[in-house]
Write a structure and sequence with these properties.
Layout: H1 2-28, H2 34-44, H3 58-66, E1 80-88, E2 96-103, E3 108-112, H4 120-123, H5 126-129, H6 137-144, H7 155-172, H8 176-179, E4 187-193, H9 200-213, E5 219-222, E6 235-236, H10 238-244, E7 276-277, H11 279-296, E8 302-305, H12 312-322, E9 329-331, H13 339-348, E10 353-355, H14 369-374, E11 380-381, H15 385-388, H16 391-403, E12 407-410, H17 416-427, E13 432-437, E14 449-451, E15 458-459, E16 462-464, E17 474-476, H18 478-483
Parallel strand pairs: 4-5, 4-13, 5-8, 8-9, 9-10, 10-11, 11-12, 12-13
Antiparallel strand pairs: 1-2, 2-3, 4-16, 6-7, 14-17, 15-16
Helix pairs in contact: 1-2, 1-3, 6-7, 9-11, 11-12, 12-13, 16-17
Length: 511
């Protein structure tokens, strides 16, 4: 046994000598920051005194010599030092933003503010978090959660929260899913958009490619009045909105408020448009579903979305017409906050209902998922992790839904940063169904990042859960990121001193 211990001790000495030389080299490197250099000097003093090993018991000696002490980080001493942003162009003509949170030990975390959002939602939080330990994820979240809200108002909080988990995982040397309690699965089922084409034969070929070649086992398609608006006698009150409200084709985004956008179709909640579908229109929409269902077959789940701003009565009529095609879900039929209307729709249809991509948090003063879940108003919740408040809050939402027998799918329209955060959350969530892949046809999208583990990002319709990489398991591909930067961007992760703390704000919610 003594011989074995001597061999172990000698091996450990060699490893520590190599570590010390590496630390000395990094200290001497002029590129090393002062904070990192000071940390490394402390770490160099923290080695095990091997000379006294032979005076320990066999159990203590083995414990000392075989432990793998990470000297890349001292988690208890971590402090947030900065928050910076890189702005990307996107396929939506709406910039996407990546945030980077830096620390005093050279470890940084990445977050994503998602599509169509304002980077100020995250930059505003900088003064609240600098100086805090990023490994205290829940505490930091409670500091900043009051500054989020529904829709895109919660994205700053979500971006910061996922970056904290990235730092924490890197500091501790484990994947984020492990910090959430472990994983239920090693790969994440994806759902992808169904390719649209006016030519039925060409669309059929594209759908077959999506399933047979790309390997997707779940598809989603748009299904709404905008697809039949060019057919006469299919929509009631169509002409009014074309002439006075920007048109029903502009369901996603219309004119700015200062130019009359407040009265446009895209801004009006579904109960207030008085847009109706004729029987001819219902038949036309049902025919679209029939064609796609025939193309994909009965084995592949098929979800539908983007019906248009029509009220719950029209949704129920449309839903009953397509019930026979056994769709996976009807998504975002009416605004999420009309809980009673959702319950009415859900009770009236056989097809599952689904909503949630604009809801912030589970409950509390700002939360919104709890009323829907408590009322069993939907069959499937559909949080967007960035808008919902981050990784842990999304898991809490899903876990709460699970207790009520409600499944969870994850909405994602973002860069690979937030997408990877979704993968960790999905891996740790039992009632998970599928994760959206909104960028299948953007060849440049995966190239924005590099996997730090041994697995690729996607394999045949499934995302791979990082099993051997700490944190989120990705790093930025700087060259590709810079190539995709927004034309109006001033630079790549430039300093943001204008967002430093200015005194101590009184931001409590109570006196």
């Amino acid at each position: 046994m003594k011989t074995i211990l001597k061999e172990i001790a000698e091996t450990t000495k060699q490893q520590e000598r190599a570590q010390r030389e590496a630390i000395k080299a990094e200290i001497a490197d002029p590129k090393t920051s002062n904070d990192r250099r000071n940390f490394l000097k402390k770490a160099a003093l923290g080695g095990i005194a091997l000379g006294g090993l032979m005076h320990l018991s066999i159990e203590d000696t083995i414990a000392q010599t075989t432990q793998k002490v990470s000297r890349a980080s001292s988690p208890s001493d971590l402090k947030i030092t900065d928050l910076r942003v890189a702005e990307l162009g996107s396929n939506f003509s709406i910039p996407g933003r990546i945030i980077r949170i830096d620390t005093n030990q050279g470890i940084y975390g990445l977050g994503d503010i998602r599509d169509g959002s304002d980077q100020r939602n995250a930059l505003f939080l900088k003064s609240k978090i600098v100086g805090l330990n990023p490994c205290n994820v829940e505490m930091v979240f409670k500091v900043i959660r009051q500054f989020g809200g529904h829709g895109r108002m919660g994205v700053g909080v979500g971006a910061v929260e996922m970056a904290l988990w990235d730092i924490c995982g890197k500091a501790l040397g484990v994947p984020v899913w492990q910090l959430l309690g472990g994983r239920y699965r090693d790969k994440i089922r994806l759902y992808a958009d169904t390719p649209e084409d006016r030519d039925p034969a060409r669309q059929l070929e594209r759908i077959k490619h999506r399933v047979n070649d790309e390997g997707f086992t779940w598809l989603k398609m748009d299904l709404g009045i905008h697809q039949i608006s060019d057919q006469p006698d299919t929509i009631v009150n169509h002409k009014f909105w074309d002439e006075h409200g920007g048109g029903i084709q502009n369901w996603y985004m219309g004119r700015p408020y200062a130019q009359g956008g407040w009265t446009d179709y895209w801004k009006k909640d579904h109960p207030f448009t008085q847009v109706q579908i004729t029987e001819k229109g219902i038949d036309a929409i049902a025919k679209i579903v029939e064609d796609v269902r025939n193309a994909v077959g009965s084995e592949v789940p098929l979800s539908v979305d983007h019906f248009g701003h029509i009220d719950m009565n029209q949704i129920i009529r449309l839903g009953k017409a397509v019930d026979k095609y056994r769709l996976a879900w009807l998504e975002d039929c009416v605004p999420w906050y009309y809980t009673d209307q959702w319950r009415t729709i859900t009770d009236a249809l056989e097809t599952p209902t689904c909503t949630g991509e604009d809801i912030y948090m589970l409950g509390g003063l700002l939360g919104g998922f709890k009323p829907l879940i408590d009322a069993h108003a939907v069959d499937i919740i559909h949080p967007d992790l960035v808008s919902a408040g981050g990784i842990l809050e999304t898991k809490k939402i899903a876990d709460y839904a699970e207790e009520e027998g409600i499944a969870c799918a994850l909405h994602a329209n973002s860069t690979p940063i937030a997408w990877m955060a979704n993968i960790h959350c999905a891996a740790a969530t039992e009632n998970f169904l599928a994760l959206e892949h909104h960028n299948v046809d953007n060849e440049w999208w995966e190239g924005l990042v590099k996997m730090t583990g041994s697995q690729p990002l996607v394999t045949k319709g499934y995302a791979n859960v990082p099993l051997d990489a700490p944190g989120l398991g990705i790093e930025l591909n700087d060259a590709n990121m810079k190539a995709r930067m927004s034309k109006g961007s001033k630079g790549y992760f430039l300093p943001t001193p204008e967002w430093d703390a200015q005194g101590r704000p009184y931001d409590k919610l109570w006196i």
